[in-house]
Amino acid sequence: MKFVDEFRDPEVITRTAEEIRRLADPNRHYRLMEVCGGHTHAIYRFGLKDILPPNIELIHGPGCPVCVLPMGRIDDGLSLAQDPDVIFSAFGDMMRVPGTQGSPLEHKARGMDVRIVYSPSDALKLAKANPDKHVMFFAIGFETTAPSSALTLMRAKAEGIRNFSLFCNHVTIIPAIRAILDSPDMRLDAFIGPGHVSTVIGCRPYEWIAKDEHKPIAVSGFEPLDLLQSIVMLLRQLKAGEAKVENQYKRVVPWEGNRAALRAMAEVFELRPYFEWRGLGFISQSALRIRDSYAEWDSEQRFSIAGVRVTDPKAAQCGEVLKGVLKPAQCKLFGRECTPEHPVGALMVSSEGSCAAYYNYEHRKAMATSLAWPA
Amino acid sequence: MCLAIPGKIVELFPGTPHLATVEVAGVRRKVDLGLLEDNLPISGDWVLIHVGFAMSKISEQDALDQMQTLMILGEDEQAMQEVRGYGLDDADDQKVS
Question: Chain B 28-87, CB below 8 Å of chain A: which residues?
Fold first, then answer.
């Protein structure tokens, strides 16, 4: 319980942890998946594993948009920006993500015009400020960022800004959960549902997980108490043999989601028939593309894109880790060939990826201990 | 990119109703209100901001709690860097780098 004293309401935390111990059947092993990369980061950062009884295992899900992006998409985006009249813009999270010829930052060092933006609307503004250049925004993210991309394209169209396009890599969370549940080696008991994605999509899209798959799900906030309360909700359902969608994060997540955000997404995007996810392979209807009515602002429709496919090294076992079959450290490459400094597999790429989070908190801690007290 | 940053609406612009100035820990930047068009905030309201767009209205207490969460997650500096990076202010053309 190393961080408990820093939390608000440490007494409530302690009581909630006791409730978890009381609810957990000691003869049962619980496998709960937190879908969102932000939750994974929070769980490691707060040391929540130290608070939970050992028979509650948290499996880290696919909700890190940087991690699940195939390397071929980065290569495709960067190949467009080889043209000196093109400015490549993206969120800072993308800048160190490796393509086969290096990351966007490494391309910048070689002379490519690469800009960090903090908002898609800033990329549009960059286009207005550079009328003789074409500004491409390399868009990534789940439903948390997709509405902002959509609204930015609506503004570009309304204002007639034609030297701007979006290279769309937006993905949707529900098909990824379905792919994990459909996997034959899946062994999950329940889900901790994503907080910020649910601000947009609401709680209704998760109902099939409870109804058809009979798995409880609790949409959760990001504080330690939020996560512990969500685990209480899931354990209560499992104990009662129930499966329903609960909303622990009511203070931010409306059951119906954000309708204006959903409208913007529907105006600009449609589902792709399929999309490749690093670690999970091709998943049908799991990503967004830009509708024909916005073709002029779609990098893929406006320019010819090679459609590069780069397969992940066979030795990397990202898929097994994503499905909870293996823990990060059980992958053959973990901590040896594959580290946050030199990521081989998807889950080591971003700090929200489960392998990187595990490496940064657990592995380094273990290494420090073994150095301090040599055997 | 995945940060939810709490900010207080301090100024609205009648000519451009989709824009507002927010204040986040003393830093003022313009954000887009387009995703709250069904329930537009007024001056003094608190919102959660994702990549320069206000995404939900929250209470002041929840805003303070969210700042605290960012702090204990070690993400407060990153959040402030993001907010400072928002370049929607017209006088701010050079901010996008």
Answer: 32, 34-38, 48, 50-53, 55-56, 58-59, 62, 65, 68-69, 72-74, 82-83, 85-87
